[in-house]
What we know:
There is one protein chain. The chain has two domains: 2-19 and 230-431, Enolpyruvate transferase domain (UDP-n-acetylglucosamine1-carboxyvinyl-transferase, Chain); 21-228, UDP-n-acetylglucosamine1-carboxyvinyl-transferase, Chain (Alpha-beta prism). The protein is 30% helix and 30% strand. The chain contains 13 helices and 26 strands. The chain has helices at residues 21-33, 47-58, 94-104, 117-120, 125-133, 167-177, 195-202, 233-245, 264-271, 316-325, 345-355, 385-396, 417-423; strands at 2-6, 13-15, 35-41, 62-67, 70-76, 88-89, 111-114, 137-141, 144-150, 155-156, 159-161, 180-181, 183-187, 207-210, 213-217, 226-228, 250-257, 275-284, 287-295, 300-303, 327-332, 359-363, 366-370, 377-380, 402-405, 427-431. It has a four-stranded mixed beta sheet. Strands 2-17-19-18 form a four-stranded mixed beta sheet. A hairpin with a 2-residue loop joins β8 and β9. α11 (345-355) runs parallel beside α12. It starts with a strand and ends with a strand. It binds shikimate-3-phosphate.
Amino acid sequence: xxFLVTPSKVRDASVTVPGxxxxxxxxxxxxxxxxxxxxxSGFLAGEDCLATLAAMRAMGVDIQQASAxxxxxxxxxxxxxxxxxxxxxxxxxxxxxxxxTGLLAGQGFDSVLIGDESLSxxxxxxxxxxxxxxxxxxxxxxxxxxxxxxxxDKLQAIDYELPMASAQVKSAVLLAGLYADxxxxxxxxxxxxxxxxxMLGSMGVSxxxxxxxxxxxxxxxxxxxxxSVPADLSSAAFVxxxxxxxxxxxxxxxxxxxxxxxxxVINILQSMGADITLENTQLLGxxxxxxxxxxxxxxxxxxxxxxxxSLAIDxxxxxxxxxxxxxGKTVFSGIGELRVKESDRISAxxxxxxxxxxxxxxxxxxxxxxxxxxxxxxxxSCGDHxxxxxxxLAGTIASDEVIVDDVAAVDTSFPGFRDVMAAFGAEISVSDxx
Length: 434
Ligand code: S3P
């Protein structure tokens, strides 16, 4: 499947985007091991979260769906999961695989976790190492999936210093910490998204964060609760940039998660001159949400603050497009983690944007993007949802038609992407050719 994108005009509009991927995964996993019922609304019915849903059901959890976005999870308690009869297929989702490994490391049964071609190439040594030092028994193919997790009744708490800023690794260790004797402490080199900590808190678990160290004591029971999933800022970011780059647009995106560990994209775009404001900010359970108002703006390049990288980790493909549309050059550094995402996102974006006439200099952990004008052309998504959508966005402001190949992965995180873009005038059609 490919996207055909024609240069388009964005209208004024109020739009909504689907639920947050990170919060949806956690609602399923934590709701499953809680005692009592967890009611979830605003769930992201994207392929990644549906893989987690299927895995929890395969381990015996009763999850009823009133609609695609609303579900009721009958928690089985900390020790109520049972071994699945088959391998757990987590598709494209690194979050599902890493968090689930933490959750399953201290269960009394064996599990096998598999994924698609992209996930099968992603590094799992980063979770195997700390979990093994807690006593987990995990086999892999040279640090990559499939993962075989051997049943292990008891884990030991550890103090772990994360070598990289990763909410997935942090969360895997914290979830295993629930099954460990003693208090597990994780120290992060930079603040990463804290949805696990917040949701555990709203389920009655004490998680203490102090100067970059997060502590959890094993054996605490989770209590089912109500989870209202905010709209995903990582999806809203595509709409934000489309509005910023259009002429005379003034749009509002409703009810978006603005947890401060996620809002780096807003800060970076504002530092480039973007007119973005937050309205109606309020708490939805433990997560802050706001309506995001975006007005067309002239962007300018500059040096992107490396301190904001972990707070905007999924938005760099979009920020590369912003940089290409900005005046002057934009320097990104400290973004080496992008090379081990669903694709090597630095190379995938640099290659795509070069085909569309933009000059990009790559370094091992960064890139300099020289502002210019996108031309038409045929570009590759490398099977990566965020690269596909970012290059499609480039097409909406290009001088000619842009074709983005291999875009099926968009459904992993943003089902309905084309409809949302169409709602405010961005024309993206699909063709089955590839
Ligand atoms: C996620 C954490 C991030 C992010 C991913 C979702 C999560 O990965 O890229 O899309 O839900 O914890 P890392 O923490 O590995 O950087």
